[in-house]
Amino acid sequence: MDVERAQDLIGTPVFDRNGNRVGRVGNVYVDDVTQQPEWVTVRIGLLGVRETFVPLTGATTEENRLDLDVDKDRVKNAPRVEAEHGHLTPEEGRDLYHYYGVDQGSAEQPSE
């Protein structure tokens, strides 16, 4: 997914792997090195005031929706991360990948 298309996701409804609505895309975060979209924040809750980071690994897009490769409870219970200045620290990224069970290397290349 390219950056322009990823930016177009902001405000898009987000669904989990089972088709349950999770929230809306709040923001898109791009890898500093590859410049590829790597994370989105999902606004959850009644007012959409809580934002949770979710990896784009395994996610698919259709017209006006983003389907994640994780379930709703996983998103709702994700660790709170405040991305200062629009960036995740390497430690935050590793912790989030670990939480979601995603091998950090698989974000760039298919695992064997």
Unreliably modeled segments: 107-112
By CATH, the architecture is named Alpha-Beta Complex
In round numbers, the mean pLDDT is: 85
Overall helicity: 10-25%
Notes on the structure:
One of its GO terms (biological process) is photosynthesis, light reaction. This protein has 112 residues and is an alpha+beta fold. The protein has one domain (3-100): Photosynthetic Reaction Center, Chain H, domain 2. Helices cover 19% and strands 29% of the residues. The chain has helices at 3-7, 72-76, 90-100; strands spanning 13-15, 21-30, 37-44, 50-55, 60-62, 65-67. It has a six-stranded mixed sheet with strand order 4-3-2-1-6-5. Strand 1 and strand 2 form a beta hairpin. It is globular, with a radius of gyration of 13 Å. Residues 107-112 have low confidence and may be disordered.
In short:
With 112 residues, the chain is α+β, with helices and mostly antiparallel strands. It has helices spanning 3-7, 72-76, 90-100; strands at 13-15, 21-30, 37-44, 50-55, 60-62, 65-67.
